[in-house]
Structures are given as C-alpha cells and as structure tokens.
Amino acid sequence: MTSPVWQRRRAAAGKVWREFTRHRGGLVGLGVLTLFVFVAVFVPVLVDESALDVTRATGGRLKPPSGEYLLGTDENGRSILALTLWGTRVSLLVGLSATALAVVIGTLVGILAAHFGRWVSTILMPITDFFLIIPSLVLAIALSTVLGGGIGTIIIAIGVVSWPTGARLVRAQTLSVEARPYIERAKALGGGHGHVIVKHVLPSVLPLVFVNTTLAVGNAIVAESTLSFLGLGDPNNVTWGSILHAANSSGAITYGAWWYLLPPGIAIALVVLSFTLVGRALETVLNPKLRERR
Amino acid sequence: MTDFLAPVEEQIAATPPPRRGGGVGRYLLAKLGAAVLSVAMTVVLGFLLFRVMPGDPVTTLNRGRPVSGVELDRQRHDLGLDKPIWAQFIDYVGKLLRGDFGPSYAYNGPAGQIIADRIWPTVLLSGTATILAAALGLWLGTKSAWHRGGPLDKGSVGVALVLWSTPAFWLGLVLMMTIGGWFPSGGMQDPDSPTAFFPHALDVAHHMVLPVITLVAVLYGQYQLVMRASMLEEMHSDYLTTARAKGLRDNLVRRRHALPNALLPAVTQVFMHLGLVVSGAVTTEAVFSWPGLGQLTYEALKVKDLNLLQGIFIVLVVAVVIMNLIADVLLRVLDPRVRAS
Fold this sequence. Notes:
The complex is a heterodimer of chains A (294) and B (341).
Chain A: H1 4-20, H2 24-46, H3 80-116, H4 118-133, H5 136-147, H6 151-161, H7 164-178, H8 181-188, H9 193-229, H10 240-249, H11 252-255, H12 258-286, H13 288-291
Chain B: H1 8-14, H2 24-52, H3 57-62, H4 69-78, H5 85-97, E1 103-104, E2 109-110, H6 111-146, H7 151-165, H8 168-178, H9 197-235, H10 238-245, H11 250-272, H12 274-288, H13 293-303, H14 306-334, H15 336-339
Antiparallel strand pairs in B: 1-2
C-alpha cells in the first residue's frame, strides 16, 4: 500500500488534521468524545455491573448526592452515577449504529440517483423529499411501535428516518463530480458503472459523507433518548433516555430529584454538542467555500 | 429532529435560485403534484405500517384472552381481514376519505373525532413557538452575521448550539423543576378557567409559557444559523459596497439592502423544517400534559392504541406536507424576482 495514490491520500489526511487542530471548538469536542468513548469501553472495569441490579441496590430511595453516592440514588436505591456511566454504552452504540444505517442508505440513494439519473432519480428523489419534510419523530414512533421494543428496533427506526439529508448532499456532490472531464475519460477508457462509482465518485463523496455522519450522530442520540423517554425503549438496557424515562414515570421529577434529572441530560447535551462542534470544524476544513468565511 | 444539526450552509446552497421568466404555473403544478404524491405515500405508509406489519390485529385486539377459532374468524370477518390485501387497502382508503380512522379502543370512540378535538391545542402551541423562534432566530442570525467573529457572534452561536443539542423533553423537565413554581406546569387551562374571552385567553397564555419557552429554545438555533449563513452569503455582494459608497449608514445598508435578500432562503428553511416543530411539539406536549396531538400520541403509546396512532401519524404527516405546499406557493409569489417577470 505504498502506491502514489495512498501517499497522496495520507498527505491530504495530514493536512486536514493540521487544519482541524486550528479549530478550538472542534478539538474540545474531540477531547470530550474521546472521554465518553473511553467510558463506554471501560465501564465494566470502572463500575461493577451489579450496580444496575435493582435487587442488589444498597442505597436509600431517592437520596440526594452524598459521599457514598456522588450523584445520589434513584427510586430503587441505585447509584445515579453508575447508571449514567453505564448508559454511555448503549446510548453511543445506538447513536453510532443508527447513523451508520442512515449513512449507508443515504449514500446509496444519493449516488444511484445521481449516477443513473433519469427514471432512477425520478423514483428516488420524490421519496427522499418526502422523508425530508415529514416529522421524523412521528415516523420513528410509528416504526418502533409496530416493530416492537428492543435496541434493534430503535436503531432501525432512527436509521430509516435519518437518511434523506445525506442522500441530498451525496446526490449534489456526485452530480458535480460526474460533470468533470476525468469521469468522461474513465468512461471512454471502458470503465463501467461500478468502476466509476467505486474508484472516482466514492472517494470524492466520502469526505462530505464523513462530515454529515459526524453531525448526524448527535441527532441519532437525541432521537434515541426521545424514543426511550416516550417509553419505546428496551427496559432491559440502560440508556440516558431510559434513565430519564424512569425519572419521569417514577415521579422523581415532581419530587424534585434534580440529581436524577441532570446527569443523563447533561451527558446527552455534552455528547451531541461535541459531535456538532467536531462536525462543524470538519465542515469548515473540508469545504473550501466556508474556510475563508468563518 | 432528524436533520436539525445538518450543515445548514450546504442546504442553502442546495436551494436552487428562482429562475427569471415564466414557468410559475408549471412550478405550481409541479409542487402540487409532489404534494399529492407525498399524501399518497403517507396513506400507503400508514397502511403498510399499521395494517400489514404488526402481525395479526385480532390477537392484539383480544389482548391475550383465550378466544375460540370460530370467534377469531368472526372477528377477522368483521374487521374485513379475510379479504385480499388489495381489497383491504381500498376499504382503508375509502374510510380515510370519509375521515374514518376506525374505533379507538382506549378512548371508546371514533379515532377521527378524538384526533380532531386535539388539533387546535397543537396548532396553537406549535404555531406560537414557530413564530417566536423564527423571529428570534432571524434577528439573532442577522446580528451575528453582521458582527461576525465578534463576541456577540461567538456568544450567541455558542448558546444556540448548546440549546440545539439538548433534547426538548429534558429542557422542559429542567424548566419545570427550576421555574415551574411560577407557572402552571400542566394542562391548557385551570379547571375553573373564566369563560369570558379575554380572561380565558390570559389563562391559556399563562399555561403556555413553559411549553413555548421549551419549544422556542430548541428551535431558534436552527433558524439563527440558517439566517447567519444566508446573510454571510449576501455580505460580499457588490450592491452592498455600492450602498455604502452612496454614504448610507451601516444600519440602513443592513436593513434595507442586505436583509431582504438574505431573508428569502432563510424563511424557506423555516418552512422546510416544520416537521421539526411537530417532532419537538410531541415531546413538549407529553412533558407539560398539553392536551394536543403530542400528548395524545404519548397516551396512545402507553396503551398501544394502533388505530389512534395510525390516525395521528397520517394527520401530522399530511398537515406538514400541506403546510410545505402553502409555503412553497407563498414564497414563490412573494419573491420579487418572479413577480417582476
């Protein structure tokens, strides 16, 4: 893998990284995200899983923060800190998987619509526009209701409603790439659809897809928390949304248990904000039109 | 909710500039066609989602009670489930056209009527919030673009991004816990709400404060960033240099020359994101027990009332599609570049 192409790509990646480090917001976001990923991966080492077991909970009911329970306890006497740390895992997992699903659908639809044009585009674009304007939460609610509870359902529901923005972006980019002479050259030399798409279109579309993915993960995490809050989550999995659902349905909010409400919500806001900051910084770096403006 | 963190600048670039010359009629026809197609897709999706996918509706209906095979067949026949799928679809479309969404098992009444009763509160809440959020967002966006790089720009964009990142329901709960004591935190009116118009309106407005603050807080950031990007796009234009060269004050250059041009794509975006408003309203209503379609969704979810959910789904999606069509037509008519031709 030391072909000139790869050397050029590595050099380009190095340049992007140097540009990226000039954006303080993006760097802070990246730092926070690294921390959350670390927690998600190593949480079994940090906090024993038995802390999530209602039957083995040792704390009192809805106790405010103390030396023993730094962030207080829930209605079953479990530590809020332990719940929030464990919630990182599934929340991030759902956010990333749902985004991956949305990105695959969006990229596929965008490239197909632009590359084949005509009737493929005539079929795909109205569908994309339809999914773009409809209230996505309402569709996600409908999907997760009829598919039945579970992490897989939530991932599918969020993925299926989140792809149209990506599809539109990819389509626009593909159209502009395919109008360039080197694509005509590739076709003239006998390059088929597969060759043109994989070798020429994909590499130039991927940076954009990457930016869009970064921005979309935040949305997916908010969507997961919203669906879980509405009671559509999997009761066996601890996510930030499901913690907030429990807080609300157990009456802890009315009771005034701020220590129950704040940690999961702040975690959601921090992660989403970090993804947004990283995404915006990347966007500025990768989009030359924006580089001078901001 | 989906694309509210999407790169707004890209979306602006994707909005094609209106072309000069005729074609307004064709444009309207195309938009109308697209809207009709969207409504059709909604109807098909509603059928597929709620009739075909969830397995046997009769099992759901009996809620696990043991029922004889003969009885099951009778129920299937009553519901028209023994007909072929296309005949069921035609039945379903026919009923929809008559506004019949089937019975609601949780509320013991026709789902259509129950939904109709809840539409007004949702329109009131999301309409008020959209207008306030758009006004705040467009104003802040103009300001921050004009002073870009300055403390006002950085500060207000920062605040907008933070509020953007918080889930609406959580913000609602936090508001309820902190300043909830000063405002009624649930429902739309007091049980003994005065019947005279103005005192009644005042009572409703008082109940609306917290939900509206919540919705505005999560919505306005979107509009601010779109407006900021749109304004930045205009700020390099030659006509602004000309306006300045004429000796116009900075304020006038902004208000009379830059703003009108920047406003059009931004307002288009406001309407394109109505789906977002509806999504936000669903959770906000659930938190504040605002008696609209969002709270109805929340209640229907708890008891798995599929007919009701299907009705709400179709009503909300079709409403957003129609609002989008109206916005498209209005903006096209308002655009002076089109009117002049």
